[in-house]
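Many introductory courses stop at the sequence. We go one step further.
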Amino acid sequence: MISEEIVHIKGIPKKLVVFLHGYCDNAEYVDRHTSLLQEIDGLALHIPQSPKISEVDKNKRQWYSIHRFDPDDRRRTTESWYEFVELYNRMTVGLEEARHCILEYVDNLLLEYKLGYDDLFLCGFSQGAMCAIYSGLMCPYKLAGVVSFSGIFAAKGYVEKHCCSKPDFLLIHGREDNMVRFDALEFTRQSLHELGCKVEKYITTDSKHVISEESVAKAAEFIKSRF
């Protein structure tokens, strides 16, 4: 269960944002880059820390093991687009484990704030983005929206068969991303569109694999437009 988090509340919460950190990462990194979200009146921002210790760095966290599915880190080096996608499609079990942990946490927050799933935005960076996309589609209730920072639609084959919901999406990706290749953006957009989701995308021209101020500003705009 998730027991560590960073929380920012401004005013009386009318909407809830849960922002998931990346692989070999932590809540503190996300917190340092989300000041524009923290300033939105009527918003509760929760940045949970995964209970799983990173397999790469014992001082960091992960939502699920990557090496379990890609022990040689082929996703970072392969030139084959087919292999790249297939490596992420192998991660269904890890994503499903993470989903149960995340949605249990979310259920408790919504009950605490007396809000509904239509008041919830799931955001995530990198592995957290993959978890946000997966959880948003597999949740039995439609969310207010999902924001992906440098993510990809993983476990696509499984989700296409078992998709429960079709939230609105904002996909943000840096053209110079050196960890999750840039063409993952169009793959994810097209895949979500085919499922029947409304999808917006935003390209940060000078960003690598980071949460940039530019990208957070776009996310804040997306969230505020749905108040």
